[in-house]
Amino acid sequence: VYEPTSASEKHLAQLFEEFSHFVLHSEREECLRIIEDDVNNGGMSVGELQGGSHLHSIYRVSFPLNDDDDDCQADSNNAAVKLIYYYNQQHGLSSKTSLTIGKIKQYMLGMCDRRSRERNCR
Q1: Contacts within 8 Å (CB) and 24+ apart, 20-25
Q2: Following CA atoms 85, 86, 88, 89 in sequence, which dihedral angle do they give, to the nearest 10 degrees?
Q3: How far, in whole angstroms, is CA 112 from its chain's centroid?
Q4: How far apart are CA 44 and CA 73, in angstroms?
């Protein structure tokens, strides 16, 4: 795990922390409804993982394969996009400060690049 170093990485790390608290705690019921709606209606972006219990389930939520959903619209068929849209809507974030699929992908690729450079894999 790498600590964020740049201002943009630190901003995204803060958004990730806030988003995870939003999904797991403050808006848990609505976020679970979005996830279960995908599962129950044949969506392809959510899968239930092993390791949960009869009280709590563990899900993986996949990003869309294309970047058409990067603007995170509520009418998307992807649960990850719907969750991010709901988070941004509830927090009144502008397009500049909002969480998007593109920003998450960019952050993740940057961290992978940093790891590759440290291991001299280039």
Answers
A1: 22/87, 22/90, 22/91, 23/83, 23/87
A2: 110
A3: 17
A4: 17
pLDDT digits (tens, 9 = 90+) for 94-103: 777 889 888 8
Q: What is the band of 67 on the pLDDT scale with cuts at 50, 70, 90?
A: low
Determine what percent of the chain is predicted with pLDDT higher than 90.
43
Please tell me the distance from the alpha carbon of residue 102 to that of residue 65, in angstroms, as a whole number.
11
Residue 34: is it exposed, middle or buried by C-beta count within 10 angstroms (0-12/13-18/19+)? buried
Backbone angles phi, psi at 69, to 5 degrees: -90, 15
CB atoms within 10 A of CB 87: 21
The pair of structure tokens assigned to 43 is 């969506």
Helix H segments across the chain? Answer: 7-21, 28-40, 79-91, 101-118
Amino acid at 122: R
Residue 81 has which token pair?
């996009």
